[in-house]
Amino acid sequence: MLKPQSTSTRELVSLDGLWKFGLVTDDLEQTRPWTKPLDSGLEAPVPASYNDIFVDPKIHDHVGWVVYQRAIRVPRGWTQDKYFIRVEAATHEGRVYVNDKLVAEHIGGYTPFDAEVTQLVKPGEEFRVTIAVNNELTNTTIPPGFIVTTETGARKQTYLHDFYNYAGLARSVWLYNVPDQHINDVTITTDLKESTGIIKYSIDTTSSSGKITVQILDEDQKTVANASGLKGEIKVASAKLWNPGAAYLYQFKVSLHDSNGTVLDEYTVATGIRKVEVRGNKFLINNKPFYFTGFGRHEDTAVRGKGHDQAYMVHDFALMDWIGANSFRTSHYPYAEEVMDYADRKGIVVIDETPAVGLNLAISSGLFGGIKRETWSEETCNDQTREANAQAIRELVARDKNHPCVVMWSIANEPASSEEGAREYFEPLVKVAREADPTRPVCFINVMFAKYNDCLISDLFDVLCLNRYYGWYISQGDLAAAEVQLEEELRGWEKKYNKPMLMTEYGADTLAGLHSLHNLPWSEEFQVQYYDMYHRVFDRIESMTGEQVWNFADFQTAIQIFRIDGNKKGIFTRDRKPKAIAHELRKRWTKIRAQGNQVTPKANL
């Protein structure tokens, strides 16, 4: 599925702005709100999560369907074209109705879907579009959850991921056209042989007789290579490479011609020539060892929730540059496509993750005092859950496969990988990921309860990605004991697997402005000492290939007794003010960056 773009043969119309909005408090199919104009008196902005926009708690806590509605006019010049509505994300299930007709439905809250409306509305005509969005989670959704009915009769959504279940149309909505004969899809992979860049491509079109030509343009818009055909390999001599912190992007321009040479359709993909490889216990980018520095993050801001915000995006990348970060993980779901495009341009390395978070019932049992349940069973995470997980992998790869910033796929965060049934669940998913993209490494994010001696699936993956909280959830406040525990475990992983190890989460909740002479937990001083301890250990472990702290900024969570207005593990506050640790990380990471992002733990930082 190609992202809509404006070319000589394509146009797109933004549908962002205020939409009529309403809750569906009864059965959606019985209520049928798309058959009539909404009269709730409410309007909601798109893109934005709806939960924090209004002051009514019934909206904030709503479980079930909501509807967005507005009038749209098809441009009258689209008479020879096909045209679609594209929803970039509907969390967690979306349906699109044109007037009274259902034209598309999609399950999965963070990947896009299209609805063709060509046969329903003529160019120049106005029509009513209604988008219904459902935030319900069950044991067969990704992420999973369950719904309970309280003593008052209210429905309450329970979920196992530790960030707020924001819902709605958090990303843009578009109306776009394509020619009747058009380019369906483009797949690009790159490689490097000495100084020659290799671009392999595959193109899918709706035309049975059209001719494909390809131009490779450099950043000065000069043609550096040409090709033709639906598949091919292009060599770029003395290629300028996409490097971390020094991105160079070529334009891969595809043209579809008819038998007379007339251009029927055009599409351009920005591509960076780079090579990603795991070799022994090293992660290599362009044949050089790469050391990750950066963050686990969230799409989370006040009022807008998970709504994409260009101003915050640019500011967040500026903060990452200031602090010396070279990477982030899209924890715990695919981010907006604009974020991926921006990372391409800025040379930020990305670990791209599916929404498979919360696949671990032991966490809820242990931390929240619940009844212990098996994670992998017919009643909990089952074959249907796995298929939803597989679909999430396919859609993630289909959307982001051409981004040079993406160097690895993460197919799940903190699953119960030491429980019986984990291998049966994950082995088919690793196969799905490798079939979808054979060129990038695949990982999952290992939870602290599944160590090297009892994790059942780590051998299936290319990189060991570990989330560890010694000194916080384990041995809280005792950093001396935590240092011993952390080093002992990391050496155990290294000895058993000899794979690259990346710490994808480590952190301590910290209340900005709280200070302590004794480095007490929650103080800014403790957060500094906590990270110093981890970095001492990292620098003693040969196989450590990076550090992504948890979290970039404080973020909202569900109401919990140990969460005061959200998770406070941020290096920055929710409104992006630095805590003391930000300055300490800046010293470490800018030094690593100055050495080409290739420093190893032996470098004695």
Q: How are strands sequenced across the largest beta sheet?
A: 23-24-25-26-27-28-29-30
What does the overall shape look like? globular
Number of discrete domains: 4
CATH architecture of the largest domain: Alpha-Beta Barrel
Q: What would you call the structural class?
A: alpha/beta
Rg (CA only): 25 Å
What is the straight-line distance between the termini?
44 Å
Q: Report the mean per-residue pLDDT as an integer.
A: 95
Residue runs with pLDDT of under 50 for 5 or more positions: none
Q: Remind me, CATH topology of the largest domain?
A: TIM Barrel
Number of strands: 30
The top-level CATH class of the largest domain is Alpha Beta
Strand content: 25-35%
Major pleated sheet: 8 strands, parallel, barrel
Number of helices: 10
Helix content: 10-25%
CATH superfamily of the largest domain: Glycosidases
Please write out the topology:
Elements: E1 12-14, E2 17-23, H1 28-31, E3 42-46, H2 57-60, E4 65-73, E5 81-87, E6 93-98, E7 101-107, E8 113-116, E9 126-134, E10 145-149, E11 155-159, E12 173-179, E13 183-193, E14 196-205, E15 211-217, E16 223-228, E17 231-236, E18 250-257, E19 263-271, E20 276-279, E21 282-285, E22 288-289, E23 292-296, H3 310-323, E24 327-329, H4 337-346, E25 349-353, H5 361-368, H6 383-400, E26 406-413, H7 422-436, E27 442-446, E28 464-467, H8 479-497, E29 501-505, H9 524-538, E30 544-550, H10 580-594
Parallel strand pairs: 23-24, 23-30, 24-25, 25-26, 26-27, 27-28, 28-29, 29-30
Antiparallel strand pairs: 1-12, 2-3, 2-4, 4-9, 5-8, 5-12, 6-7, 6-9, 10-11, 13-14, 14-17, 15-16, 15-18, 18-19, 20-21, 21-22
